[in-house]
Every structure is written in structure tokens, then in C-alpha cells.
Specification:
Strand content: 5-15%
Number of helices: 13
CATH topology of the largest domain: Aspartate Aminotransferase, domain 2
CATH superfamily of the largest domain: Type I PLP-dependent aspartate aminotransferase-like (Major domain)
Shape: globular
Strand order of the largest sheet: 2-8-7-6-5-3-4
Order of helices and strands: EHHEHEHEHEHEHEEHHEEHEHHEH
Number of strands: 12
Radius of gyration: 21 Å
Length: 382
């Protein structure tokens, strides 16, 4: 039996996406910029997909820009806005627990003269609101805080952060990386009061290589790649038609599954937490409250993450030691370390992440395998 609990890294495309893509690829292969019938049909697909995504975000379709994924969307938001508005100020406020595509981009901007400030997080993953308010000043042009942490599933109060930032400096633009939140948490851009939002298709069972950056009307970004006038020149290049089609279709299927079993992810997570709590030397880093139902981070004290991962894999359990974009080369979980957790906890953490394709019964099998793995690894360690 194989159990795939690594859905925060990527998801298997829905069967409906795969099946309909075959027909789409053979029939709708025109370039949406072409003036002939095939091009017009392709353009219609792009417009429909934008409308579907815009409806989920509470935006208008002309505020939706397709990218190659969450990483590009984050780069375009941060670099595109920073360089376009650097004459007004150079301070950007963020957190040390952002996805690598945000942290690495901020480091790049810092090397290019921008003042990057990070707000502390506590052991529960909460931001220090007082420190945040002090860091936002008249030279601050941008705030970037993720909606759901990709390692622990912690849900950040982006709405409150935006209110604080815009009250302190009405000209501040707020960006949120909502890649792990889209379709699982509330992502209405107006309710959250954000100006830029990044999402990605392959986290919700669409193809890899397709993402979206929501750009509020009136917010100007400098493009980071150059070419034709597709997407108003903000993100040039021929649109990824299979990816766009798959994104829209995945949303449709996801909505149906969520409507039929609205508590499925929470039930899976709760059951796994209850089972793990019976084992010795296990630390739950993603409590049921204040974290996404789709992510559970757990530390198995005394056992290195990589060793435990491969042991679980031998039983057909697929999980992760953290972000797929940062898990290679590091021996501890950086997010847990930034939260002030002991190195023993950061070095032994495993991330289980769930989707609507998982079954509650898979948790029971996983718990059996985890118990066997713990017994085996702790026995040989003695």
C-alpha cells in the first residue's frame, strides 16, 4: 500500500484533468495571440480560466496574470514592485519563515540596496505585531507575509497585518504568498486587503509549471522578463495553455470534492495527531487550531529527519522533511529553528501534508508503519 502524504510539495493531477487534457492538447493548440479561429479559441480559454480564478480570489479577471508557478509569481511581485517604486523608498518588511522563493528574492534585493527587515516569530509561529508596526515606516514600500506557512501550516493574520501597515503608511503595498492557502483557506483579496497575491496550480492537482500573480488594479510592476505584449507586457511570453486549462479544471474538481466532504482534511489531520500523541518522544509542531488542515509538522525526537523519511518510504509512506525547495542540503528545519524550537526538534521534523484524494483509512496504515519504524530505529540506536 502506498500513502502519499506530501501534497504540500506537489499533488497528483486529478484524473479529470488528465483525461480532458488529452482532448484539449489535440484540439486547442492555437496561440492565443493569433488572429485566426484557433487563436481566438485559445484566447477564450485563457479568459475563462482568468474568470474562474478571479472568482475564487474575489478580484476581477483583468487583475489575474499567469506565471510559470509560485516562485515566479513571488519574484515578479517583489522585484517588479521594488524596482518600479524604489525612488519612493527602499524598505521591505517580511518574516524569516517565508518560502525560499521569497527569502532568496529579498536577499537579492538587499544586495541591490534595499533595506530588508524581518519580523520575529514566536514558538507558536505568531508574528510580533508590535515589532511589525515599528518596522513599517514612511520609507516602507512593500510588506510580504505568507498566508499559510509551507513547513508548519501556521496561518498568518494577513488581514490584521495589512490593516496595521496601511494605517502606519497608506502607501504601503501588501503582498502575500498564498500558494499553500489557495482553495484550502480564505483567499479573498478584498477581505484580506492585499494588493498582490501569489498562487500555484500544482498544489491543487493541476499541472506543474503554472501559477498566478494577482495584481490589484492601479498597482504598477516592472516586468522581470521581456518579450512581446502578452498579459499587458507585465508577464510576456506565449501563455502556457495546457497549464492554464489544467488550473481551471482543477479548481472545478477541487470545489466538488470539498463540497462533498468539507471536513475531510481536518479529520485526517486530527486522526493522525491523536495516533501520534500516543507515541513517546513525539512533538506536534502543527496544532489543530491556528494551522492549516492540510499540513502537519511532527518531530520524532532522537531520529534525524532524512533517516526517518527513508524508513517510512520503505513502507510506502511518502512525506517530507520540509519545503521541496529547501529540503536538500540542510540537516534541520529552518522554519522551526526561526521559531526558537530546540535543534533536537528542528533536526527531527517530518511534514505530512494532505489532499482530498487521501483517505482517512490511510492514516491507520501510516500510524502502524510509523510505530514499526520508531521501534526499529530507536532499537538500533541504543
Amino acid at each position: 500500500m502506498n500513502v502519499y502524504f506530501d501534497n504540500a510539495a506537489t499533488t497528483r493531477p486529478f484524473d479529470e484533468v488528465i483525461q480532458e487534457l488529452s482532448k484539449f492538447l489535440s484540439e486547442t493548440y492555437g496561440n492565443p495571440s493569433s488572429l485566426h479561429r484557433l487563436g481566438v479559441e485559445a484566447e477564450r480559454i485563457v479568459k475563462e480560466a482568468k474568470e474562474i480564478i478571479a472568482k475564487k480570489l474575489g478580484s476581477s479577471s483583468d487583475e489575474i496574470y499567469f506565471t510559470s508557478g509560485g516562485t515566479e509569481a513571488n519574484n515578479l511581485a517583489l522585484i517588479g514592485y521594488a524596482f518600479a517604486h524604489q525612488k519612493r523608498g527602499k524598505r521591505i518588511v517580511s518574516t524569516p519563515v517565508e518560502h525560499p522563493s521569497v527569502i532568496s528574492t529579498l536577499e537579492y534585493l538587499e544586495r541591490n540596496g534595499f533595506d530588508i527587515q524581518y519580523v520575529s516569530v514566536d514558538a507558536e509561529g505568531n508574528l510580533d505585531f508590535e515589532q511589525f508596526e515599528k518596522l513599517v515606516d514612511q520609507s516602507t514600500i512593500l510588506v510580504s507575509v505568507m498566508l499559510v506557512n509551507n513547513e508548519t501550516g501556521h496561518i498568518f493574520d494577513v488581514k490584521k497585518l495589512s490593516e496595521i501597515a496601511k494605517k502606519k503608511n497608506p502607501n504601503v503595498i501588501v503582498h502575500t504568498d498564498a500558494v499553500q492557502a489557495f482553495m484550502k483557506e480564505k483567499t479573498n483579496v478584498k477581505e484580506l486587503n492585499v494588493d498582490l497575491m501569489s498562487i500555484s496550480g500544482h498544489k491543487i492537482h493541476a499541472l506543474k509549471g503554472i501559477g498566478v500573480l494577482y495584481i490589484r488594479k492601479g498597482v504598477n510592476l516592472q516586468p522581470i522578463i521581456f518579450g512581446g505584449q502578452q498579459q499587458k507586457g507585465v508577464r510576456p511570453g506565449t501563455e502556457n495553455m495546457p497549464g492554464i486549462f489544467s488550473f481551471a479544471k482543477a479548481i472545478e474538481v477541487f470545489e466538488k470534492l470539498k463540497a462533498s466532504e468539507p471536513d475531510k482534511l481536518r479529520n485526517i489531520k486530527r486522526r493522525l495527531i491523536e495516533g501520534l500523541s500516543a507515541f513517546n518522544n513525539v512533538v506536534i509542531n502543527s496544532p489543530l487550531e491556528k494551522t492549516s488542515d492540510a499540513i502537519l509538522n511532527v518531530s520524532f525526537l532522537g531520529i534525524k529527519s532524512e533517516v526517518f523519511l527513508h524508513t517510512l518510504e520503505s513502507y510506502g509512506i511518502f512525506a517530507s522533511s520540509g519545503s521541496a525547495c529547501s529540503s536538500k542540503g540542510r540537516t534541520y528545519n529552518k522554519v522551526l529553528h526561526c521559531m526558537g524550537k530546540r535543534m533536537e526538534i528542528a533536526e527531527s521534523s517530518i511534514r505530512f501534508s494532505f489532499s482530498y484524494l487521501n483517505k482517512v483509512e490511510e492514516v491507520d496504515y501510516a500510524l502502524e508503519c510509523i510505530e514499526k519504524a520508531l521501534r526499529f530505529l530507536r532499537k538500533i540506536k541504543k
